[in-house]
Design goal:
Length: 353
Amino acid sequence: MKALVYHGPGQKAWEDVPDPVLQEPTDAIVKMEVTTICGTDLHILKGDVPAVTPGRILGHEGVGVVTEVGPGCERVRVGDRVIVSCVSKCGTCEFCRAGLTSHCQTVGGIGWIFGNLIDGTQAEYVRVPFADNGLIALPEKVTPEQGTMLSDILPTGYEIGVLYGAVGEGDVVAVVGVGPVGLASVMTASAAGASKVIAVDGNKFRLEQSRDFGATHTIDVNAGGDVVAQLKELSRGGLGVDVAIEAVGVPATFGVALDSVRPGGHVANVGVHGESVTFPIERDWINNLTITTGLVNATTAPELLESIERGDITPEKFITHRFTFDQFDEAYDTFGRAADEHALKVIIAAGDA
């Protein structure tokens, strides 16, 4: 088969590799129909994820058809069209039973292993461990492109942003950073009943798109003015937003989220941080704040599937560019220059998908 193989920082190739084979009774083999690229893949190519070694097949998202199952699989069947979850989980360890599947101990303490510790989904075929738990049946009414958004991006924005932020009916929510994950929080916060969803970013295209995803207000950080003050002006009584979702991962945006939330509010950190941030506990110990962090557990995909079938959320809006498997270089180039290309999520499809 062919797959996109990492060969060290800045090096990748769509090349011939051996077909995956069943290694454990609970494995399945999936023929990939559709996949996509995550910001994490770009970090890997920069050399930022040392656990990823040369020779690794990249990718952790997508939809495909099951072609082979191990004797230990009870739910997954050959011929099933499935979503490949970005998080692998045994379902029986202490963390899995507690719902923290992203820290499954059986797979090594981190559920994100595709394209990281084992070969991933940017390939014609992929081996899926613990397939009964890692594969989600795709309903007939949900397209493969919609389903691909449920591998990672939508569960991340929903679980770590909206659920961890405890977004409720009538809440005023600020989403600081409306790249793809931030837009996933915008979309699901709106569906959760927020009265206002305020998108904060410096990219005019993303701010324009956020309106279509459910944002009621936008703030352009490059337009001048005090962003925190503008957020408070839009809050109840000027006291601050109920929930601030940080979806960038830099000190400045974390500071905006923390400074804009009201007493008793929530700061839900979704962004991946590469350096320390400042938490002024001498100021905020008295404010009854809840600050949450997290790696997606991807346990909400069935719930999100129902929302798609009802029409409450429309994940196809994320897709701005489409490519085929023989165009991986072009797809990475486009996604890597997302601001210039006005790219949100790219879809890469097999020729027969």
